[in-house]
What we know:
A: mainly beta; 1 helix; B: alpha+beta; Arc Repressor Mutant, subunit A; 12% strand
Amino acid sequence: MPDLNIKPGETATLDRVEGELRVGSRARIRAANGRSVVVSRGVYFEGSVEVDCDFSCESMKLEGRGYGSGGNIIVTGNLTVQGAADIDASLEVGGDLKAERTEVGGHLKAKNVSSRLVRVGGHMVAKGTLEAEGVDVGGHLTVTEGVKLGSLRVGGHVKIGGGVISGKIQVRGHLETTSKLEFGELELFGHVRLPAGSKGNVLIAFGRAEFLGDAYCRAMQARGTVKVAGDYSGESAEVSGKLEVLGSLNATKKLEIGGVAEVGQQVKCESISVFGRLEADSALVTEAEIDGEVKISRYLKGRSILVGRGSTIAGSIVGEQVEIGKTQNSLAHWAGELARIGRMTEVQDVYGIVVRIGPYSRARRIFAESVEMDNGSIADQVVYTKDLKLPSSCYLGKPPIKMTTLPEFPG
Amino acid sequence: MVSSGSKRSKIDLYAKVLEVITHYPEGVRITRLSYGVGVPVDRLKSLVEMLCSFGLVRKSGSDGEIYYGATARGLEFLDIYWKMKGFLEEFEEGKRDY
């Protein structure tokens, strides 16, 4: 039994209510002191109610009758709820909203919002800041200023003024931020444009992600399109869609390219696997496995470079151990392999300590200490310092040359 | 068809209903769902029943209240829907560039 009942349609002038308050539909609440009303326990709304002041209570609940039947709560001042605000319909707060838990079935509007957990079935608009451990919005989310969140899940579009989202972000639509964003794990299906200085832990882009300057992301999966208008750095990157980096790409661990990667300057990583296409100015790696297409302006340099059958490399290859066309690498993508059946493995100049050219592979010039060629292989020129193994049916454009020292390697 | 423009198709509406349902992993009542989707209860009931018949939504009840939740198939549909929507929007943008 509530301690105070406000009848439907009534206007009540209140100060402090000890106990529970039940408010009838279309009622209005005003503050006797002109500023605020405090309810020591819970408030139950039967329908639409307007509160013309600051309002504070232990908990708040409204069970609606469904969309179109009203049931919206309007608080013109600040709203403070010690426990849960549980509103089936919509909640509009002219000032700030503070609650332990905010559950709104329809739309939520407020100025600054601070709540441990926020769940909104419809759209949410905060004309100030948003601070919460977890935010879950079925529709769109708009926050004019910055956010400080643990996790964020939005069924529509997001527009925020930068900030920090330390945990997981899942956005079905587009994400727009006017200031730099620091994120934990960002999974997006639509578009995101991140201002310069944005950085994160993990980015999984099914849609399109654009970094407007240098970018740092520990691990990146570009399943859609990722563009970086500066340098990209991180631990690893996996590209099954398209990655465009205007500057350099630096991965301390692994770079896997099944789709297309276009890098304006240098690619530098511990290991690289290409079963799609890579274009770059140069590439500096420890290990490289190529089962696709590589176009390098200057050189692809590494300790071990394995080029699978049917692959093509434009640009110089520089390595300690280099194998061209001897095997199909373990990471060959089946679609790429089908396209490459019957195709010759083609590379340009190869510089190495030990260079092996497999069957039906073609190289331009080879400079190495030891060179081994297989049946059906072709080279325009071979220059070596130690050993040369030539089978009966390989073709050399010029007779092989043995020298005491090799010319300087590129890179 | 999945629409990339402003008019909502039936598929878009199914996706909207399912999307809001997935934001309530513990299940959601039809009245609360109606506010999130922005559709009156009577019309929403027929949409939800259709989704149940497709196996995308499941019903559960306690104390006379019915709660709706997404099935694994419903989650799979949503995943494909959003990916397809992303592709269609990119194709539209590509068309404008030409």
